[in-house]
Amino acid sequence: MKELICSTIERNVVLKCIRDHKRLDLRTIDETRSINIEFRAHPGYVSVTLGQTHVIAQASCRITKPKESRASEGHIRIHLDMSKIPLINLENWKHQEFVQELNGILEQNIRHSNCLDLESLCINSGELVWSIKIDLIVLNNCGNILDCANIATLCSLYHFRLPEVSVHGSEIRVYSSTERRARPLRILHFPINVLFAFFIDGHYTLIDPNSDEERLMDGFFSISMNQHKEICGIHMGGKLGLKKEQVELCKKLAFKKVLELTDRIRQVVTDYYKTIEPITHAQPSIIRIDNDEDEDDDSSSSSESEDPVLIKPEIPLSPIENNVSLLLMPDLDNLSLTDDVSTMIATNVDKLTSDLENDDEHDNE
Known about the structure:
Blueprint: H1 8-19, E1 35-39, E2 45-50, E3 53-64, E4 75-81, H2 95-110, E5 122-124, E6 128-140, H3 145-159, E7 161-162, E8 165-168, E9 171-174, E10 183-184, E11 192-199, E12 204-207, H4 211-216, E13 219-225, E14 231-238, H5 244-275, E15 287-289, H6 292-297, H7 302-305, E16 309-311, H8 339-364
Parallel strand pairs: 4-6
Antiparallel strand pairs: 1-2, 2-3, 3-6, 5-6, 7-10, 8-9, 11-12, 11-13, 13-14, 15-16
GO molecular function: mRNA 3'-UTR AU-rich region binding
Family: Belongs to the RNase PH family.
GO cellular component, one term: cytoplasmic exosome (RNase complex)
């Protein structure tokens, strides 16, 4: 975070309030601003406000190839966009550098902390995986964009729903929500970021600084923790060093806020899916079962039984269904038979006819 321009009068007023253990927005030195979380109808779309700082997040997914070194893990990317707001008080207009710094901290807090189980994003090991992208847009900046963007990212991941996928050989099918209920992402923990600001050679410490306090702080200390007291990331900046006692104090204050925000995120997402109207999902058109018995009974049809049999649920197997083509499965009422099945039926009919004729001759004798 770069040094910002501030007038002398504003500097004197803010620093006087800090010396008196007061703040311009009537908060205490260890009190954060109110947080408002709102979800939209689209999964993964969330709007978060921290005081008057406003950030929206949208999660999206696509199927891509995995990395060669991690063939069974998916991807997650975070992109922060601050083009909607002007930052004219940055020295030398280093807007892009400021955005890259915040984006790097978010990448370390979210992606490098392994809060999302990347192996659960694997579709076919070594071939296809899901790639999750979080797009963050800052609509208003009143200080502490980092914490607000961090909360928006976690809410978006926890609110997002991933479509179900089935793989049959080289064919991949992505089910819509009317066929199969989309599944949530597997979130292992919530690495929540808490920002502290230091003033007057580090003698005064504030949590969640606003825009006026950010322009006057001598340094900042950002710590990311989860509910298990595990530190996921630490970032420092400014003109001063910190003592061990100051770091321990920040750690204790941050852990209290982490527990509160973790419960808050879980609760708001749970309440959202309870209040929305439940969607009736139809039965999936195809499912996969094994066909081991048919292979043992008829070794001559081994080439046909190598592929998995796909049928509708709650329908018993029959010789006809065991030879149904995959492309004809969505509607079992209009099934076409393969040549082998037609030949098999014709053979069975001829055999039955010959048996009846033999019975008639025997009766006549």
